[in-house]
Amino acid sequence: MATQTSVSLSLVARIAASLVGGYAFTWGVITLGITTLVALGSEYEQAYLTFKLLGFVLFLGLFLWSFIAKSVTLLWLTLGGGALVMTTLAWLLQNQLLTGA
């Protein structure tokens, strides 16, 4: 009975990682990418379109990867940690662009 429960919890953790973690990681990539391209002189609309299209493919890849990853813990650390780092970097870069520093 304990084995069935652990398998169910592992599956729920993978589903949550694929949806929530994949979305957050993709969001981080998109925000950092758009902010970086704008900082390098690209037009916002072009940067937005480029990274939204890349984000779609990235989310699909992360979704699929979450079901074949060997460790659920490593999966969550990669997706959550990556999302946090990239979103923070994008926020800091955006603040620099807006304040002109």
Fold and architecture overview:
By secondary structure, the chain is mainly alpha-helical. It is built from three helices and no strands. The longest helix is centred in the first third of the chain and has 38 residues.
Write down the oligomeric state.
Answer: single chain
Number of helices: 3
- Taken as a percent bin, the fraction of beta residues is under 5%
Which structural class matches the secondary elements?
mainly alpha
Binned, the helix content reads over 70%
Q: What string, H for helix and E for strand, traces the elements in order? A: HHH
Sheet with the most strands, sense and barrel status: none
Q: Overall 3D geometry? A: elongated
- Low-confidence stretches are none
Number of separate strands: 0
N→C terminal distance: 60 Å
Mean pLDDT: 92
What is the alpha-carbon Rg in Å?
17 Å
Keyword list:
single chain; 101 residues; mainly alpha; elongated
Q: Topology, pairings included?
A:
Blueprint: H1 2-39, H2 44-68, H3 72-99
Helix pairs in contact: 1-2, 1-3
Quick recap of the structure?
90% of the residues lie in helices and 0% in strands.
